[in-house]
Amino acid sequence: MNTAATLDTSTTMAIPGDQGSHGSLVQLRGVFKAYGDSPAVMDHIDLDMQAHERLVIIGPSGSGKSSLLRVLMGLEEIQKGTISFMGSDYILGTEGRPSTLDTKLQRQIGMVFQHYTLFPHLSVLGNLILAPTKVHRWDKTRATERARELLTRLGLEEKLLAWPSQLSGGQKQRVAIARALMLEPKLMLFDEVTSALDPEMIIEVQNVMMRLADQKMAMIIVTHDMQFARHIATRVVFCAGGKIIEQGPPEQIFCNPTETRTREFLEKVVQFN
């Protein structure tokens, strides 16, 4: 299915954050992560991301793509290396000791997962305002206004008081995106957010992501959808064996990759014209 041809980017959606800065947003230096005695999923990774770039991470299963996002979100530790965010030390890894994390910087990052992770016992509104009111001490009125604003922009205003069980998969994922946007993050992480959806619902979610892209939201996206990757990315990063094998503009990676491993991967997953 040619996803790019059907995406609707006509509706703009204002997003928070500093839209004028074009400096370095994320820096990884020598980041190493392994699970027990298994081969490293992040083998001394170096990576830079500029503000408002849209990095799409591709690669075979087990190449460390999702681990990279989970590390950036502060959900998993690293054994070695440093990660800077917004010009400050964010995560520091020292061999033999737990890695350190700046929780204030962590709050500037939002993440959307493959399986929604909505709380089934809370309404849509309850899911959106839980973290702002309980963790960050927002006034409930302020949080509710923000939730209504985001749901309206995502076409879900009538679902404010619905339960997750009453939503389609595409609606659940759009609610998850709204929840991640509640705290006005400077960076959004998307981990295979359409892989569990049928084709029509995939378009719903990808349309939202394209509108965020139009508004210059910084994003790191892990996806197996090469059509979508080619359409939304400003830079594509190909990973295999815990290493970055090749990176560059989507036209270069998909049309003229320089590394044999990249070409082998793409030949398996992309039908070239």
Task: Outline the structure in words.
The chain is α/β, with parallel strands linked by helices. The chain has nine helices and eleven strands. It has helices at 65-72, 103-106, 124-134, 140-153, 169-181, 199-214, 226-232, 250-255, 260-269, and strands spanning 24-33, 42-50, 54-58, 80-85, 88-94, 97-101, 109-112, 187-191, 219-222, 235-240, 243-248. The strands form two sheets. A six-stranded mixed β-sheet has the order 7-8-9-3-10-11, sandwiched between helices. A hairpin with a 2-residue loop joins strand 5 and strand 6 (97-101). Helix 5 runs parallel beside helix 6. The model is unreliable at 1-22 (pLDDT under 50).
The percent range for strand residues is 15-25%
Spans of at least 5 consecutive residues whose pLDDT stays below 50 are 1-22
* Assembly state: single chain
* Amino- and carboxy-terminal Cα gap: 14 Å
Tell the overall outline. globular
SS summary, helix count: 9
Reading the helices and strands in chain order gives: EEEHEEEHEHHHEHEHEEHH
- Strand segment tally: 11
